[in-house]
Amino acid sequence: MVTLKGEHIYLRALEPEDLEFIHHVENDESIWELSNTQTPYSKYLIKQYLDQAHLDIYEVKQLRLVISDYNDVVIGLIDVFDFDFRNRKAGIGILITDEAKRAKGYGREALSLLIKYCFNHLQLHQVYCNISEDNKASLKLFKNQGFENIGLKKDWNLVQGVYKNEFLFQLINS
């Protein structure tokens, strides 16, 4: 995996040293809605996950990268999931973990780097994302990157006893 470098941030592979960070993210109930997480994760399970993080995307069908600034401060995570090489498509998700770092252009830069990686290195034809109807920041981010809203999934996710709609966005490599 090449390191993907931007002007202000870079994307890198997960390292064993990321255990505490990943444990914190995966157990932050305020963001479980984004990942459809239902239960906390133990450090043991996350360590096993990190031990497998080196496996090839063609084998595990996913790739998680750390978003870091050039002072090596971790800003967030960006994922490729449901990797389908036969049909040349995959899902993308992004999380800027530090609220103070949101709306500063880091997400835009990370998403741009990942899209280029997916289209140029993985040879994907399209990438897609699922965004809750009330996640205004993500809706703006993906629209500004050229993603097209192709559908609304009604009552798609049950969140704290309330059903929420979810949009499906798609970006086709022209």
UniProtKB/TrEMBL annotation:
- Asked whether the UniProt record includes Transferase among its keywords, one would answer yes
CDD domains (UniProt xref): NAT_SF (cd04301)
Q: Which GO terms describe its molecular function?
A: acyltransferase activity, transferring groups other than amino-acyl groups
Instruction: Answer whether the UniProt record assigns the keyword Transferase to this protein.
Output: yes
Checking InterPro entries in the record gives: Acyl_CoA_acyltransferase, GNAT_dom
Q: Which UniProt keywords apply?
A: Transferase
Domain of life assignment: Bacteria
Pfam families reported for this sequence: Acetyltransf_3
According to the entry, every stretch annotated as the N-acetyltransferase domain falls at 9-169
Q: What is this protein called?
A: Acetyltransferase
This protein's species is Formosa agariphila (strain DSM 15362 / KCTC 12365 / LMG 23005 / KMM 3901 / M-2Alg 35-1)
